[in-house]
Design goal:
CATH superfamily of one domain: TusA-like domain
Structural class: alpha/beta
CATH class of one domain: Alpha Beta
Radius of gyration: 15 Å
Distance between the termini: 31 Å
Strand content: 25-35%
Strand order of the largest sheet: 3-2-1-4-5-7-6
Length: 193
């Protein structure tokens, strides 16, 4: 993630404000896609606006891997998870600005989420490849970008994701966010497979 565009850790408290759920409700957005026992990756999780509800939806048989380059964000998320009794479901991990460091999750993830993250990455293509490597064939990648990312930039990012072996299942706009649901086919375009 580009350090000069990095969302400040202290602003993470704004992201977990309950009022935000009025315009962007994680359960409403993802509820039809998360079932008990799923393995989920929240890439760029911040303080867990999506992580906590996803952990509640996947339940005790599931796992939510919450990855962020900012240790302070992860510390707040871990405390929130403990208060909600979700510490056994939520696993926090610090990554670097160059890698999610999720090699041990290869082909183990059912759903990956990157919300407001892709535009902050140093190398979008490398980030997308890392997400793809964690997903099981048929897994879902949900990526969303806020209003600071133009529709043209969002479409360009979606095209890169499609080229990495994903097909668009649906795209929508919630509040001031563009969101795409991308199904992993495990067949990158132009790969000759």
């Amino acid at each position: 993630m580009k350090e000069h565009h990095l969302f400040p850790w202290w602003a993470g408290y704004l992201l977990i404000n309950p009022i935000r759920k009025l315009s962007l409700n994680p359960r409403g957005l993802l509820g039809g896609y998360i079932t008990p026992g799923m393995s989920i990756l929240d890439a760029g999780c911040a303080m867990g606006f999506f992580s906590i509800p996803m952990a509640e939806m996947t339940g005790p048989g599931g796992r939510v891997y919450c990855i962020d380059p900012q240790k302070k964000m992860l510390t707040v998320l871990a405390k929130r998870a403990k208060r909600k009794g979700l510490s056994e479901i939520i696993a926090t991990r610090e990554c670097t600005f160059d890698s999610l460091m999720a090699g041990d999750l290869e082909s183990r993830i059912d759903l990956a989420l990157a919300f407001g993250v892709l535009h902050e990455t140093r190398d979008e293509n490398a980030f997308i490849r890392e997400i793809a490597s964690t997903l099981r064939p048929g897994g879902l990648f949900v990526f969303g970008e806020p209003h600071v990312v133009s529709p043209g930039q969002f479409d360009a990012a979606r095209t890169k994701i499609e080229a990495a072996g994903f097909t668009r299942e649906k795209q929508l706009r919630r509040s001031s966010n563009n969101i795409a649901f991308m199904r992993y086919t495990a067949e990158p375009r132009g790969s000759g497979h």
